[in-house]
Design goal:
heterodimer, A: 302 residues, mainly alpha, MetI-like fold, 2 domains, 12 helices, 74% helix, 0% strand, B: 320 residues, two-stranded antiparallel ribbon, flat
Chain lengths: 302, 320
């Protein structure tokens, strides 16, 4: 019982009475202003994306629909000629990306196997990690100049091979990183089990560990392909461009991204329209491949 | 039966010394992976070497003065790269000025629970989409959509603030300022993704402590969470800077390729990668060599920035 000169407080009072939790007006305003500000930031960041996607759809789709099959089956038009398509550029993009993957996938996967399975944090694998990070920061145009220096000058001609080499430099760090992630996601017990049944590292990696990490490897490959499909700068002086179909890998080859560049800066309306249509195709390719990559990683073996 | 008959006929050591195909394959496989791991480093050196070897004539001819002269004259074979170096650095810095507040703002938004995660996840996905759009598409969007849209606004800025040297020329359709704004959009995803990771990985106890001391949400963010995640945020900014410095296509399509330093941001300018993209096709001899010299400068520039970023981000990961 409370004595008369003490404040009349019961434990229950705290629960029932409202605690005076008022924040000073200024602090409240500050909070609301900041919340408004970040929402504005989000809107501002998404605005360009919305605009780009909208323009791609309106400008690209109209062209794709008006001359539907011919866009995919015809060759790029010369200036002031109507119609035309980008058959050779689609093939060229696929071919250069494929060559890039052919070089970078085995290279990247085996490197990741070293750093995770054999190196396990030693000097060399730290060095490889450092180099991978540096390599992923190399500007794409420098990859192009590198391929120009080692392939184009040696072969004496611009070619799809040179384009593929340039792209492989950009794909390599992506593949190394995602493969490393996949290999690390496999529990230690699996490796102990492999040692227990007397498997060599090679047998263990190829029959158990790599198959288990395959979703990650596939993700890395698709992400790398998505990046490579959109790259223009490394192809400018390696694959160059070709108004016609390339008859071999040792010839200048048209690609979608270089076609977009050439036709976007051209003063001809038909070519500009074709550039929008090509851009829509490239973005759709990249998006579908990236979404594929997402679904792949959601499937884990362990 | 004696023990002798049960015991293996050879010891483990003996059997390991015997020829054994799986073991041989294993050895070869091991050395193959070592070779390729070393190869990653070799590629970096090889890139630098191939740039250096082709750039050598220009380096010998123009030496360090190449960096400080404003001339690009294929007829007289005189080359200097000051406008390009200036343009590369200034456009990247302006891009950062736009991208840092925007990117950190979005990162804070995505790391807090302003909205239920059902709404946040699609927004985060959309932000990632920004990174998936190729730079050449950004360039084309800049030419046909963004610059026509922003030009009237820049015209107003020129009218009101024309007395400031930075805005002293009438906005041109190909110019530094608008290019930098497009670059800012392109580097946003880098800043957002890494800053958000840094903010999310701040230990929840810090937030709880701040709330316990009576901080409002925004006081906790500005005074506790952002300072705690600062190294990650700075790392993301450095990585974004590296990307902006090396960005080629958007710059080549939008910046106007003017071979002189113009203090006004509304005038055409040039960047290292834009000049290479525009001139390499017709270049030969000393001009090509000079372009490789420029590429070498760009390589060193981005290398330093990226290594710094690497250092900062790795420090933040250790704290974590």
């Amino acid at each position: 019982m409370s004595s008369p000169n003490q404040p009349d407080l019961n434990p229950g009072d705290f629960a029932s009475s409202e605690i005076n939790y008022s924040v000073a007006q200024g602090r409240k305003v500050f909070g609301n202003v900041m919340t408004g500000l970040v929402l504005f930031c989000v809107a501002l960041a998404l605005l360009p994306l919305g605009s780009i996607l909208f323009m791609l759809l309106t400008n690209g789709l109209s062209r794709l629909f008006t001359d539907f099959p011919s866009v995919f089956t015809e060759l790029p038009p010369p200036p002031l000629v109507d119609g035309g398509g980008f058959r050779n550029a689609i093939i060229g993009t696929l071919v250069t990306c494929f060559i890039g993957a052919l070089i970078s996938v085995p290279f990247g996967v085996l490197t990741a196997i070293y750093t995770v399975e054999f190196g396990q944090g030693n000097r060399l694998s730290q060095f490889v990690r450092f180099c991978t990070n540096v390599l992923s920061g190399v500007p794409s145009i420098i990859a192009g100049l590198f391929a120009y220096g080692i392939v184009v000058l040696a072969m004496g001609t611009f070619s799809a091979i040179a384009g593929g080499v340039a792209l492989s430099v950009l794909m390599l760090p992506i593949i190394i990183r995602t493969t490393e992630e996949g290999l690390k996601s496999i529990p230690r017990e699996v490796r102990q089990g492999l040692v227990g049944i007397g498997a060599t590292n090679f047998q263990g990696v190829f029959s158990v560990i790599l198959p288990a990490a395959l979703p990650f490897v596939a993700t890395g490959v698709t992400l790398a392909l998505a990046r490579a499909a959109g790259e223009t700068a490394p192809l400018l002086f390696t694959a160059l461009f070709n108004q016609f179909d390339a008859r071999s890998l040792r010839e200048p080859t048209a690609t979608l991204s270089v076609l977009i560049y050439n036709y976007a800066i051209a003063p001809y309306k038909n070519q500009n329209e074709l550039a929008w249509a090509a851009a829509l195709i490239v973005v759709l390719m990249i998006l579908s491949v990236s979404i594929l990559a997402r679904t792949l990683t959601s499937r884990k073996v362990y | 039966m004696t023990l002798q008959t049960i015991a293996p006929e050879e010891t483990l050591i003996q059997s390991s010394q015997k020829f054994n195909l799986p073991r041989l394959i294993n050895r070869l496989f091991y050395w193959l992976t070592v070779l390729l791991a070393v190869g990653v480093g070799v590629i970096l050196l090889w890139i630098t070497y191939s740039l250096l070897s082709i750039a050598f004539p220009a380096i010998a001819q123009f030496n360090i003065g190449f960096l400080f002269t404003q001339v690009w004259n294929p007829v007289q074979e005189l080359y200097g790269a000051l406008p390009q170096i200036y343009g590369t650095i200034v456009s990247s810095i302006i891009a950062l000025l736009f991208a840092i507040p925007l990117g950190v703002g979005v990162a804070i938004f995505l790391s807090e629970n302003f909205l239920p995660s059902k709404v946040l996840t699609p927004i985060a996905f959309l932000v990632e989409l920004l990174a998936a759009i190729p730079s050449v598409v950004y360039g084309m969007w800049g030419i046909f959509v963004f610059i026509p849209f922003i030009l009237p606004l820049l015209q107003l800025i020129h009218q009101w603030f024309g007395w400031i040297p930075l805005f002293s020329t009438s906005p041109s359709t190909r110019q530094m300022f608008a290019t930098a704004m497009v670059l800012a959009i392109m580097i946003l995803p880098t800043i957002i993704a890494i800053s958000r990771d840094a903010l999310i990985s701040v230990p929840p106890q810090l937030r709880q402590g701040a709330y316990g001391l009576g901080a409002t949400r925004w006081e906790a963010i500005t005074q506790v969470l952002v300072p705690a995640a600062l190294s990650g945020i700075i790392g993301s900014i450095m990585l974004a800077l590296g990307r902006a410095l090396g960005e080629t296509m958007a710059a080549a399509m939008l910046i106007g390729n003017a071979n002189r330093v113009n203090i006004s941001l509304f005038a055409p300018a040039s960047t290292i990668s834009a000049l290479i993209a525009n001139q390499f096709g017709e270049a030969s001899g000393l001009q090509r060599s000079s372009l490789f010299y420029l590429a070498l400068i760009l390589m060193i520039l981005t290398l330093v920035v990226n290594m710094l970023a690497e250092f900062i981000v790795s420090r933040f990961q250790q704290v974590e």
